[in-house]
């Protein structure tokens, strides 16, 4: 049932409202589709571990590849169905918010396409299935900013715990579906000889079985320092030499099996925040203190600590505690409803957002190529207006397989961030039904 301030509305009416928000025209009550949705939503998602994904994909043959395709084909609509039910359970006033209706439409379309997709029985059919799934992934690029926009606008109508719980379920599920889809596509590419270049690093699908943590940290620091946008900023450093150095210590030879894209997104976001804060605090001094990254390989986990001297989070006016930076509620993070952030989310909703390092770097180079001299482009692309996606998504990535991300702010001095990721690969995906 849809909940409103004065009662409840039938789900069919809610669906009708959602579709009218987008198309501005009446639509059918979709009773048949509702019955199908109930069937799929009643099924339990088959959660996997990294170890299972690696084990199954390590010795790939035609039979296993087709089995993988049909698992993805049948599992994705189940996971989408659970999230459609989540959307249908939102209060009526939230359903009509800008962005929410768009996400619902995308999810409903994907659900219908996937549940009606025929079984895969050959390599040729698998190639077509991979193209089909790849198209769906591209179509869903606007999901993150649209969700964030819609729930930011709806924040006054939802309790903070309810809002954050909803966003966590939606984003974790989104990550899980992309992992299944992208992993299968990568396995198919490798099997057909179209595998991507990985500089000799061992991998199975999208999982790097010997992921070198130090190398990933160094890559993130290098990409940040090499950004062409620094020289375009009217408020940032004129060149990368003015940015703080990143010093790495601890167990620098640590390797483990993990999804490199997830680890590097988290590290990239954390280093970006540290670099900007440290430069801002020390730009008028003779030297800028370095950022220290410590790697620790425990028995069950890999830990990364990032320490900066950027003055701390200074969150007293807008946040009550550091972890509120992960929240999508304006009650916990008042910046959620700032006009500049809402405007930036609208722009991102039109362009799409995949939450990857390569996407950000690509956007920076596009901005620089478009106007190499513009001093305000950096504000839009790197420094401002801070749409507030980076830290919440980093937290979601960290917790997907049971890790943690914690921030400790020393007001007036700096911030320590502690990332812990499981290294044995035995944790199930953190999706919720």
TrEMBL record:
Please list the GO biological process terms of this entry: regulation of glucose metabolic process
Domain named Branched-chain alpha-ketoacid dehydrogenase kinase/Pyruvate dehydrogenase kinase N-terminal: which ranges?
A: 47-207
EC annotation from Swiss-Prot or TrEMBL: 2.7.11.-
Which SUPFAM superfamilies does the annotation name?
Answer: alpha-ketoacid dehydrogenase kinase, N-terminal domain, ATPase domain of HSP90 chaperone/DNA topoisomerase II/histidine kinase
The cellular location(s) given in this protein's UniProt record come to: Mitochondrion matrix
Which UniProt keyword terms apply here?
ATP-binding, Kinase, Mitochondrion, Nucleotide-binding, Transferase
User: What Gene Ontology terms describe what this protein does at the molecular function level?
Assistant: ATP binding; pyruvate dehydrogenase (acetyl-transferring) kinase activity
What InterPro entries would the database entry show? AK/P_DHK_N_sf, BCDHK/PDK_N, BCKD/PDK, HATPase_C_sf
Coiled coil spans: none
Claim: Mitochondrion is one of the keywords in the record: yes
- Gene Ontology cellular component terms for the protein in this record: mitochondrial matrix
Q: Name one Pfam family in it.
A: BCDHK_Adom3
What is the top-level taxon of the source organism? Answer: Eukaryota
Give the record's family classification: Belongs to the PDK/BCKDK protein kinase family.
Q: What is this protein called?
A: Protein-serine/threonine kinase
């Amino acid at each position: 049932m849809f909940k409103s301030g004065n009662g409840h509305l039938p789900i069919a009416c809610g669906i009708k409202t959602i579709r009218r928000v987008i198309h501005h025209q009446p639509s059918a009550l979709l009773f048949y589709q509702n019955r199908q949705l109930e069937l799929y939503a009643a099924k339990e998602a088959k959660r996997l571990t990294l170890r299972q994904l690696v084990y199954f994909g390590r010795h790939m043959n035609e039979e296993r590849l087709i089995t993988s395709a049909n698992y993805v084909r049948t599992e994705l609509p189940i996971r989408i169905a659970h999230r459609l039910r989540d959307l249908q359970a939102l209060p009526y006033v939230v359903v009509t918010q800008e962005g929410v209706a768009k996400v619902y439409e995308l999810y409903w379309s994907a659900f219908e396409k996937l549940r009606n997709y025929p079984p895969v029985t050959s390599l040729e059919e698998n190639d077509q299935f991979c193209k089909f799934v790849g198209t769906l992934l591209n179509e869903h690029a606007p999901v993150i900013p649209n969700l964030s926009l819609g729930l930011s606008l709806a924040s006054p109508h939802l309790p903070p715990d309810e809002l954050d719980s909803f966003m966590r379920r939606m984003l974790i599920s989104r990550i899980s579906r992309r992992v299944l889809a992208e992993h299968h596509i990568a396995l198919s590419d490798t099997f057909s000889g179209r595998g991507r270049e990985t500089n000799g690093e061992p991998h199975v699908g999208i999982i790097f079985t010997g992921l070198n943590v130090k190398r990933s940290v160094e890559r993130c620091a290098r990409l940040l320092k090499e950004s062409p946008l620094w020289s375009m900023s009217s408020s940032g450093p004129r060149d990368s030499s003015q940015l703080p150095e990143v010093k790495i210590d601890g167990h620098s030879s640590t390797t483990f099996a993990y999804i490199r894209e997830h680890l590097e997104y988290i590290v990239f976001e954390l280093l970006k925040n540290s670099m900007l804060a440290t430069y801002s605090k020390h730009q008028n001094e003779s030297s800028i203190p370095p950022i220290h990254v410590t790697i620790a390989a425990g028995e069950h986990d890999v830990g990364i600590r990032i320490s900066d001297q950027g003055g701390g989070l200074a969150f007293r006016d807008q946040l009550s505690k550091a972890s509120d930076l992960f929240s999508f509620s304006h009650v916990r993070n008042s910046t959620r409803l700032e006009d500049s952030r809402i405007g930036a989310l609208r722009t991102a909703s039109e362009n799409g957002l995949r939450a990857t390092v390569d996407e950000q770097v690509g956007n920076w180079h596009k901005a620089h190529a478009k106007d190499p001299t513009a001093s305000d482009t950096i504000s839009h692309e790197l420094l401002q207006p801070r749409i507030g996606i980076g830290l919440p998504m980093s937290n979601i990535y960290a917790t997907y397989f049971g890790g943690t991300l914690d921030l400790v702010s020393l007001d007036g001095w700096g911030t320590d961030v502690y990332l812990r990721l499981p290294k044995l690969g035995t944790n199930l995906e953190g999706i919720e039904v």
